[in-house]
Predict the 3D structure of the following.
Amino acid sequence: MKYTVLSLFPEIIEGYFKASIMAKAVEKGLVEYNLVNIRDYAEDKHKTCDDAPYGGGAGMLMLAEPLGRALDSVVGTGCVVGAGRALPVQSGRRVIYMSPSGRPFTQALAQELSACDELVIICGRYEGIDQRIIDLYVDDEISVGDYVLSSGEVAALILIDATYRLLGEVIRPESLDEESFAGGLLEYPQWTRPEVYEGIPVPDVLLSGHHENIRKWRLKKQVEKTLKVRPDLIEAGIKNGSYSPEILDLIGETK
Ligand code: SAH
């Protein structure tokens, strides 16, 4: 997977690629990254990248021209104005604009994007970007949640983190199968050493070594937790038929 990130502050993104599991993924060649400073594509002497929006209103907007040139430098072609977008949607590459008015980012979307060869991610600042860039270049506008951040960099890191860990070999596949959202349930609670912490012992069943009992107990905890904090996931899971009879029984018992 290649991540190409266009930003006015690429240094915010850079550190992420240089630490921990991501650094190892880069070292192993599973992940490649290219950080593009949009300001390098501003042509006036002040390197201006923003201006007031037409029609008035608070704040500034990122200028189309530097961002368009920066995009041309990574996607390799000039705009075909009037074509609806600059480039044919290439299956391997998606151009994404991080935006609070985009479609919601979910585990399912992370899974879909992790199959791409390259994600080109535009990070907005100020009041956002000129609509013509969206019309000409962007395949997907994606929001990381119903709140407004001051910058697209933080949102881009969420998207990058959630997708790269799904690439084969980055994380053990068993770990991914059991975590929150896999199978329409949140993850079960977990404990590690010591056996007693601040007077609170680890649940007996986890020390029993009885794998089937542990499995059942964890599944029950998953159902309890999901019913309590995310009843919407349970409703959707029932509707989509994604639960096994065992899970449906547990939901019936717990409700
Ligand atoms: N005026 C805009 C907000 C701009 S916030 C509005 O009201 O919709 C500045 C930048 O932060 C945006 O261009 C976008 O790239 C990023 N951003 C803010 N909130 C976000 C969110 N929830 N998801 C993804 N990106 C977000």
